[in-house]
TrEMBL record:
The record marks 103, 127 as: Interaction with substrate tRNA. ATP binds at residues 12-19. Catalyzes the transfer of a dimethylallyl group onto the adenine at position 37 in tRNAs that read codons beginning with uridine, leading to the formation of N6-(dimethylallyl)adenosine (i(6)A). It catalyses: adenosine(37) in tRNA + dimethylallyl diphosphate = N(6)-dimethylallyladenosine(37) in tRNA + diphosphate. Its EC number is 2.5.1.75. Keywords: ATP-binding, Magnesium, Nucleotide-binding, Transferase, tRNA processing. Substrate binds at residues 14-19. Monomer. One of its GO terms (biological process) is tRNA modification. Residues 37-40 are annotated as: Interaction with substrate tRNA. The lineage of its organism: Bacteria, Bacillati, Bacillota, Bacilli, Bacillales. GO terms for molecular function: ATP binding; tRNA dimethylallyltransferase activity. Its cofactor is Mg(2+). This is tRNA dimethylallyltransferase.
């Protein structure tokens, strides 16, 4: 049986500190970073997506950032295709690909041998991303309008019902892992993480998020994928005079906290993640990666 090629992934919830750790890992082991974030592919969506700056990159090469116009749709299928091409380039150069992110489902689809032959897949994934940003209450109201009987706590089923109604799309199936993957997960105490998320949103506002979103709305006819991004769609009612800026901030904070919780749940349920507490297990992480790189197949 042919041995699987190696890949290293760094995952974790929003605002946990993946960016700082990714640079330390990349520099220590001479790796290039491939972003696993579904929204950082968009040019001009910088502040709201927490996109790494040139200064923060500190000379480390980054891929899958600023590759699309916000008018273009982006799907998990396209992510899988593009990233696997980048991974092949890394293998040809005798490097191990280093994926940092991001969107948990995208990482799952990359590591596992997901097959996509649905012609409507781009549109389907755009709808899933769009509905993921809704609160459970908002999803429930939409589902009720379709006369569907789904419990408000079952987010996954509510989203599936809405996407099926929109497109008649069928869900993908899990398959075995395609790569020999080391998945490092960063976590922190929930209260600490939520406070960091709240502070991060305030920092985004002070750095000019409102102006960034306003410019995007004025310049582009945003794709459903881009418009579904947390930190962007919350401004729609604000620009229409139906919501205060304080309410926008509150909504972004709440949506970000909920998304963080869903990220963790997905990572724990779907992927074989080795978890490390941020800020305390750095040396252990380096040691684990070194062992992984050196091990023979």
């Amino acid at each position: 049986m042919e041995s699987k090629q190696k890949v290293i992934c760094l995952v974790g919830p929003t605002a946990v500190g993946k960016t700082d750790m990714s640079i330390k890992i990349a520099q220590r082991f001479n790796l290039n970073v491939i972003s696993g974030d579904s929204m950082q592919v968009y040019k001009g969506m910088d502040i709201g997506t927490g996109k790494i700056s040139r200064e923060e990159m500190d000379g480390v090469r980054h891929e899958m950032i600023d590759i699309l116009s916000p008018e273009e749709e982006f799907s998990v299928k396209e992510f899988q295709t593009r990233v696997r091409e980048l991974m092949e380039r890394e293998y040809k150069n005798d490097n191990i690909p280093f994926i940092v992110g991001g969107t948990a489902f995208y990482i799952h689809a990359l590591i596992n041998d997901f097959q996509f032959d649905d012609e409507d897949h781009k549109e389907k994934e755009a709808r899933v991303q769009y509905y993921e940003t809704f609160s459970s209450e908002a999803l429930y109201e939409k589902v009720k309008a379709l006369n569907e009987d789904v419990h408000i706590n079952n987010r996954k089923r509510m989203i599936r019902v809405l996407v099926k109604h929109d497109l008649g799309a069928k869900p993908s199936h899990d398959t075995e892992e395609k790569y020999d993957a080391l998945i490092i997960g960063l976590y922190d105490d929930r209260d600490v993480l939520y406070e960091r998320i709240n502070e991060r949103v305030l920092t985004m506002i002070s750095e000019g998020l409102e102006e960034e979103v306003s410019n995007l709305f004025e310049t582009y006819d945003l794709s459903k994928t881009a418009l579904g991004a947390i930190g962007y769609h919350e401004f729609i009612d604000y620009f229409n005079g139906k919501k205060s800026l304080d309410k926008v901030i509150e909504d972004i904070q709440q949506d970000s906290r909920r998304y963080s919780k869903r990220q963790l749940t997905y990572l724990r349920n779907k992927l074989s993640v080795e978890w490390y507490k941020v800020g305390t297990d750095e040396a252990e992480i380096f040691e684990r990666i070194e062992t992984f790189i050196k091990k023979s197949h």
